[in-house]
Design a protein that fits this description.
Elements: H1 2-39, H2 57-64, H3 66-99, H4 105-117, H5 120-133, H6 140-164, H7 168-176, H8 181-210, H9 215-218, H10 226-236, H11 241-263
Helix pairs in contact: 1-11, 2-11, 3-4, 3-6, 3-8, 3-10, 4-6, 5-6, 6-8, 7-8, 8-11
């Protein structure tokens, strides 16, 4: 009886510790973003916490500054380009890795993952030098290609995870009904992969508009994305305008996650 009570007490203490660590980790993850959002509404003309009042002045200034608006548009263009490239390259690569009947499928999976494991700064410098060797100057297109190389593994892994859970018998049934491989792919495989493709698209889009480590080396002088513009802004001003720009990025990321949750559900991303 005593051993049973000790065991129950140990379980309670263990669960309490796990719960406490989880709450503490959640606070560490969320608190910085919440603080930035709170500061962005401060009435004072310098960064301080807690704020003294509430105002939307700094968000108004964000959209009044032409360089910030242009950088937002550049980031949106990069994000959309990266998303399209990741879909066009990542989905066929995932299909080849999972359904491919050739030697080297494992090597292909590893090869796709390697750029994502390399620090973004290293990859950015490498793409910059490679572009110089072939005569391609830093631009919004070079930046898009570099970020695509960096995060292509996100799309591939997301689609792979979904594809590995699909029953091959569905595709075999389509073949037995005299469907061509392309028809089977279009009518059976792609509809079932759509949740994973949409989820991967959201993740790559958010990374495309928020990436700094790669973009800082590959963007053009007139194509500065929002993260690079924000870095320059931090160096020359200490007003809540910086927090307001960060708030815009945070809201974009939250909206993207809400869109995934409402359309396919976060629980269905890898199912």
């Amino acid at each position: 009886m005593k051993a049973l009570k000790r065991s129950s007490l140990t379980d309670i203490i263990g669960l309490g510790l796990i719960f406490g660590v989880a709450i503490f980790s959640l606070i560490l993850l969320v608190a910085p973003s919440i603080i930035v959002l709170i500061i962005s509404f401060d009435t004072r003309a310098y960064v301080s916490f807690p704020p003294e009042g509430f105002t939307l002045r700094w968000y108004g200034e964000v959209f009044q500054k032409s360089e910030l608006v242009e950088s937002m548009l550049n980031s949106l263009q990069v994000g959309l380009t990266v998303t399209v490239l990741c879909i066009l390259l990542g989905v066929p690569t995932a299909l080849a890795c999972v359904r491919g009947r050739f030697r080297g499928t494992t090597a292909l999976s590893v090869f796709v993952l390697v750029p994502h494991m390399v620090p973004g700064i290293v990859l950015g410098v490498a793409v910059l030098f490679a572009g110089a060797l072939v005569g391609v100057s830093p631009s919004i297109w070079l930046q898009s290609v570099a970020i695509t190389v960096f995060i292509l593994a996100v799309m591939v892994r997301t689609v792979q995870s979904r594809l590995m859970r699909l029953d091959p018998a569905l595709e075999e049934a389509a073949a037995n009904l005299r469907a061509t491989p392309f028809q089977s792919l279009r009518t059976v495989t792609f509809p079932l992969l759509m949740p994973a493709i949409l989820a991967g698209s959201v993740f790559t889009f958010v990374e495309g508009i928020d990436n700094l480590s790669v973009a800082i080396f590959t963007h053009g002088f007139r194509d500065r994305p929002l993260p690079v513009e924000l870095l320059a802004l931090v160096q020359y001003t200490s007003t809540p305008l910086v927090a307001a720009v960060s708030g815009v990025q945070i809201v974009l990321a939250i909206v993207a996650l809400i869109a995934v949750s409402l359309t396919i559900g976060l629980d269905n991303v890898n199912d």
